[in-house]
Design goal:
Blueprint: H1 3-12, H2 16-30, H3 39-44, H4 52-65, H5 95-99, E1 107-113, E2 120-129, E3 133-136, E4 141-144, E5 150-151, E6 161-162, E7 164-167, E8 170-173, E9 183-186, E10 209-211, E11 238-241, E12 251-253, H6 255-264, E13 272-277, H7 278-281
Parallel strand pairs: 1-13, 5-6, 8-9, 11-12
Antiparallel strand pairs: 1-2, 2-3, 2-4, 7-13, 8-10, 10-11
Biased composition (Low complexity): 53-65
Region (Disordered): 41-79
Signal peptide: 1-19
């Protein structure tokens, strides 16, 4: 027996433990260290980016670094979604009408006629907050306008109220100033007499008035008859006390509401009246 054969025989006599060690050494030398898998599977594992087999080990390491188990905390974004607040517009006003209101104006008296040929309308006061936009500060009040309704081209005696956006700067009346912040002219020249279109008495109609700055000079008494556009374009158009009937061109509301309007109007808010039939204002 050769020396090599004698050495092998001695090793075999050491039992199955040595054989198992030799077998394990052979497996490690082949590069296959995945228990229970074949060589092909082992070669693929980790050879493709994102392969599940290759990421399982790194996931386990991550869990171990975080204390192990499913209790590890992931980074949670605490960013709160910011919702844009869109300022409210005055209901019923279209783009063209809104464009006529100065950005500096924060108070608007909106007079909405039922129809272009109707003398019935509604008046409501709005104020503008920089963030929230326009909100009503009064209920809708019943009102009257000119007998024949509304027009975009008012002329003296046409019995129609002018459509548009006009500033409000001056007030007055037969009665004493109720406490308005507008310039107020009080005197007997505001005495009204005669009858309206329905035979109703006009007495008391000018107890309180607010001049609408249509074809007039702002900053003057409502009784000023200067007409920058000419006499033929009319003038002397006011918001005044209602006499239960249509007007010649003015807007009228009940006495207690007229007084409330005078107390609300504030020159610092650059008030305007937005007036016309509903269809025209919606343009």
């Amino acid at each position: 027996m050769s020396a090599r054969a004698l050495h092998a025989a001695r090793n075999l006599r050491k039992g199955p433990r040595m054989a198992a060690m030799l077998l394990a050494t052979g497996l490690l030398l082949t590069g296959c260290g995945v228990a229970g898998g074949d060589a092909e599977t082992a070669d693929k594992a980790g050879s493709v980016p994102g392969d599940r087999a290759s990421t399982s080990g790194s996931a386990n390491n991550t869990n171990a670094n975080n204390g192990g188990g499913s209790g590890s905390k992931d980074t949670i974004s605490t960013e709160t979604e910011v919702q844009e607040v869109i300022p409210q517009e005055i209901p019923g006003l279209g783009r063209r009408t809104r464009a006529e209101i100065s950005p500096e104006t924060t108070q608007a008296v909106v007079v909405t006629g039922d129809d272009q040929d109707s003398s019935d309308s509604t008046l409501q006061v709005y104020e503008r907050d920089p963030a929230a936009g326009w909100t009503p500060v009064t209920d809708p009040w019943p009102a009257h306008n000119a007998k024949r309704g509304w027009t975009e081209d008012h002329n003296q005696g046409d019995l129609r109220s002018p459509i548009g956006v006009f500033t409000l700067t001056d007030a007055g009346g037969l009665f004493d100033d109720p406490g308005t912040k507008l310039t107020y002219d009080q005197g007997p020249a505001f005495t009204a007499s005669g009858d309206g279109f329905n035979g109703e008495p006009l007495e008391g109609s000018f107890d309180y008035v607010v001049a609408i700055n249509y074809n007039r000079v702002p900053g003057t008494t409502p009784l000023d008859w200067t007409r920058p556009l000419g006499m033929e374009k009319g003038g002397g158009i006011w918001i005044h006390v209602d006499h239960d009937g249509p007007t010649q061109a003015c807007v009228s509301i009940h006495r207690e509401q007229m007084r409330e309007l005078l107390l609300l109007l504030d020159p610092e808010k650059q008030p305007v009246v937005v007036m016309g039939d509903a269809a025209s204002l919606a343009r």
